[in-house]
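Q: Here's a chain of 114 amino acids. Please give me its 3D structure as tokens.
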Amino acid sequence: MELNFEHLQSAHCENGVTRSLLQNIGINQITEPLAFGIGSGLFFVYVPLLKINNGPVLAFRPMPGLIFKRTCKALGIPVVRKKFSSKQQAEAFLNECHAEGHPVGCQVGVYYHT
């Protein structure tokens, strides 16, 4: 099955995904800055023990997934979140959702990035 999903270029990952997924279900008023604001997106994190590209982790936003979760909660949109212990389980679920015509957002991390 082919989904009629329009990818929208964005300046930031999660804000753009939030906007794209919400527009896919007909909520066209959400912009990237609006998703960031509704999702309470701004705060500061400094984690010197965790290194990415040989430097400490710095962030001016909440943990990945929270902007989307908070925006949907504020708009009264239910969200189903799943975690998988294997690549095969995740792929099977994605294929099932795709076959049913549901777009899916995937969150991946940089924990094992070297």
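Q: Can you summarize the key feature?
A: The chain is about 35% helix and 10% strand.
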